[in-house]
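Lab notebook page, bench 4
Experiment: in silico fold of construct C2
Operator: M.H.
Input chain length: 615 residues
Purpose: comparison with the prior construct
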Amino acid sequence: MRKQNSEFKTAFTSEADKSLINTDSFGFVELDKYACYVIADGIDDHVDAVGAKLAVDTIISTFIEAPSIRKHTLHRCMAAANRALLQANSKMKLKASVTIVVTDYVKLRYAQAGNTRLRLYRDGFLKLKSQDNSLSMDLVEAQKLEPDQLVQHEERHNLYCYLGQEKDFGPYVSKKLKLSNSDALALYTRGIWEHVDEGELADVFGDATDDPQPTVDAVEDLLLSRQPQDLEQYTFVAIFFNKVYIDPNGKRKIKKIIMIAIPILLMFVIVTVILLVLWNNRQKDIAAMEQSFYDTVEYIQADNYPRAKEECQKALDLADNVGNKEVQQDASNYMKLIESVIAGDDKLDSESYTEALRDYRNAQTRSRYADNLGMDYIQDRLDQTASYMEVYDMLSLGDTLALNLQYEEAEEQYLAAKALAGKIYFDQGRTDAMAALEKLYADQKANLEQKEEDAQKATEDQAAAAGVLSEGDAAFAKGDYEGAQAFYTTALQKYTELEDQAQIDALSVKLDACAKKLAQQEELETEAEAYMRQGENAYNEKNYVQAKKYYLLAKDVYASMENDAKVAEVTRRLELVEMGISEEEKAAQEAEEKAAQESENTTIPNETTPPAAVG
C-alpha cells in the first residue's frame, strides 16, 4: 500500500561520448514497500563498456531478493556488485563509481563508492549532498582546497573507494533521512558535475514543478549550451517525491507507545524537564539561526553588506551550535561572498582600485555559490572601479606627457579625465584632474619664464664671452701671447657652457696660434739669454768690444720680441760697456801721450852738449 499511496516520479537522460560509447548506467525498481535507484559511472572500461551496467543489474537484483532500508542491505548490495566486477570475464579489470538510493516511501538512505553524486533539494534549498571518495575531496575537507576548485582539480578522479576494488573496499552508507512532500533528488555522473556547478543546479531545481522531465531537460540544455570540448558520456537523474506515504495506523501506534511510555516518563520526569529545556533552547537557536539566515539574504539584496555580515556570522554560530550542516554550508558560501564585497568596498574607498577590482571579481565568482545574490551590485561596482581606473590612467598618461614637456597632449588627457570623472560623479577624480590642470598651467608659465630667463642669460653670457674674446685678440695683436692665451681659455669655457660650437672651434685655432707664438718666444728668449750670458762673461773679462757685440745681438732679439723691459735692461748694460770702452780708450790715449812724451825726451839734445860735427 505504500507505493500506491505515495507519488514518486523519475526522469533521466544518459548520453554516450564522442566515440559513441556510454559507460554510464542507471536503473531503478519501485516495489510495494521499498524502492531502489542506482546510478553508475564506468571507469577504464571503454573496451566493452559493461562495468556500470553490470554493477546496476547486480545491485537491483540483490536488493529485490531482500528489500530493506537498513544499512546492512546497502552494504550487501555494494559487496555483491564489487564481487561481480572483480569476477567478470572482461578484457580488462572492470571498475565503476556507484550511488545507491533506497527508500520506504517515507525515509531514504543512500550508499556511495566513487564520485557519482547525489543532491537532495527541499523548498529550493540544498538539503543533502554526497561527498566524493577522492583525494580532492579529502583536500577540501582539510581546507587545503576551495570547494569551487574541486571540479577542475587534477586528483578529482583519484578514488580511494570504488567498485572493482580488490582490497579495503569500504563504501559510505548514510543515515536515514525523513522525506517531505515536494522533495527533489538529483543523481548524476562526472559528465554533468565537471561542467555544471552547484549554483546552477540549485537554480534549476528552484524553478522546478512537480514533473521531473523539464528539470532533466533544463540541466541537459545547460550542459550542451557550454559546448565543452572534453565532454564525456553523462547521466542525469531527477526523482521528485511529490507525495510521501502517511501511515494510517500511525496515531494508534503513537497512542500505544505513549501508554507504555508513561511509567517510564514519570520515572525520568526530572531528566525530561531538563531535556525539554535544552530542546527549547535548541529550538530557539534554530529559530534565531533561520531568522539570521533570512536576514542575511535580505541585507544582501538591500546592498547592506556590513549588516549582512553580522547576521551571517550569527547564523554560522547558531548553525554550529545546533549542528545544521546545510545552513553551515550555505551561510559559509554567503559569508565568502559578503567578505569579498566588503573587501572590495574598502579597497575602493582607499583608492586601491586594482585590488578592489580583484575582490569584486572574486565576489562575482562567489555569488554563483550563494544563489547569485548581489550580482547587480557587484557588476555596478566592477563598472565603477573600471571607470575610476580609467580616470587615473588618463591622469597618469597626462603626468608622463607633462614631464616630457608635451603640454598640449597632457592637457587633452587631463581634460578627458575631468570630463569622465564628472560623468560618473567621481568627485575625487574630478578634483585630482583639476589640480593636475592647475599644476600643468603653472608649470607651463614657469617653463616659459625659465626659457626667457635662460635666453636673457645666454645673451649676457654671449656678450661676456665676446668681450673676453676681444680682449684676447687685443693682447695677441700686442704680442702678449700669455695674456691672450688666458683670455682665450676663459672665452672657451664660456662658449662651451653656451654650446657654441663655431666659437669653440675658432678659439681652438687661436689657442693653437698662441701656443706656437709662445713656443717661438721661448726659443728667442733662450737665444737672447745666451747672448746676455756671453756679453756678461765678456764684460767681466773687460772685453768690452766683444761684450758690446753680444749685448747688441741680445737687444735685437728682445726688440723683435717687443720685450721693452729687456730692451731697456740691455740698453743699460750697453751704457756700462760704452763707459768701459771710453775708459779703455782714455787709458790708451794717456798711454800713447805718455809714450810720446817719453820719446820726445829721449830724442832732444842737451843744450849744454855741443852740436855734433858735420861730416
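Observations: The two ends are 219 Å apart (CA to CA). Residues 611-615 have pLDDT under 50 and may be disordered.
Next step: discuss at group meeting.
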